[in-house]
Amino acid sequence: MVVPINDQASNAAGTLGSYGDGSAVSSSRSRQDTKGNTATGASAAGARAVSSQLIAFYFRAPAKAFFRTRVDYLAFARAINPRVQANEPWSWRMSSIGLLTHAVRSHGWGFIPNQILPPLLANITVGAVLYTSYLQLLGKLYPPASELAKRVYPPIPLTKTFIAGCAAGAIQSVVAAPLDALSVRFRPSDMLDGRYKTMWQYGHLKLKEIGLRGMFAGWSLSFFKDAAGYGLFFATFEYVKAQSYYAFITQYYGSLDWPNLHEEHRTRTIRPYFAIEPMFLLLAGISASVAQQTVHYPLERVQEIYYRSLAKTDQTVKTTMPISSIMRIYIGAYRRTSGQCRARANRLRGWRKWLYKGFFRNTIRQVPSTSAGLIIFEMVRRRYGNEVEVVRIEKDGYDIILT
Prior knowledge:
The chain is mostly helical. Mean pLDDT is 75; it is low at 1-25, 51-66 and 260-265. A three-stranded mixed beta sheet has the order 1-3-2, covered by helices on one side. Strand 2 (391-395) and strand 3 (398-402) form a beta hairpin. It has helices spanning 7-16, 22-58, 75-79, 82-85, 96-107, 111-141, 158-185, 188-192, 199-215, 219-254, 276-308, 310-316, 323-347, 351-355, 359-384, and strands spanning 269-270, 391-395, 398-402. Helix 6 (111-141) packs antiparallel against helix 7. The longest helix has 37 residues, at 22-58.
């Protein structure tokens, strides 16, 4: 970027020119400043262009990405924190930053790459698989959704978002099966006793120990939970965000009457109030989270019971056993889980009461962060999306403009 020189600067330069060698020095400095400003402007423009493209690519994914993490990356940090173990009242020392600070002070900076980084990378991988799968599948089912646009109009049909969400959840369940196997078998005491020194070592040795069959033990429950849960989530979110929003503004603004204006002076275009769409995004996030939890929560209660028997199952199953014997062992584990679930449901006098016990408390605790994250994502995606023609909805002789 070249900074222009004004008249005062030119006069000053001319005045300095009358002092012999000062003219050459001033001219040399001026050329250096011009070159430096040009280089700085070019570098800044290039950095902005690259960063904008990277942000646009990142937020292109339909990142309904603010669920609970698949793997708890602070599990070991909590296990070594005396305040957590003593069940003290919550304070900032028990927050994520507080837990990490105590862990680093106790075990050094190597704690982060050895104990925190592996589960973080696992969560990123699972999330990337989910979002990429959903985006690609939705683009195949509804081609306009594959374009990098601020909004898709006409909106995506409900059945297509549900199918894409189900398929993406099913694909994610396959990739996440080893991570789930490691997560449910993790015992902080194994790390404290020195059996495993790092999470990297734990993952490698444990997967080698349980084998492929152990990785997919209980996978059928995860498959149904992820497929149905994410199908409901994406379908609900897109429906409330798009169909419900368009229906509201069409009905509300299309029914407005302007009795004080003559026909020739009547405004022919309407732009909805800017705060309406964010409110629908908030409603979409809350609705989608609740819809997903109606499937996730009861199945997670069943999984908790099944996973408690995995240690015994792992000891029983041997790699040299025939497949028929291994299948009988896992089928027996499912039967025992079914019996235990039935007994607990009978104690509470009904399956619904047991499966959804504590549902609202758990869901309310998750909804705010989920909804806030979804709103941030949608706003950033509109900011960095490709500019497309505005959407016009005709209603009662008016054009409702959506930018």
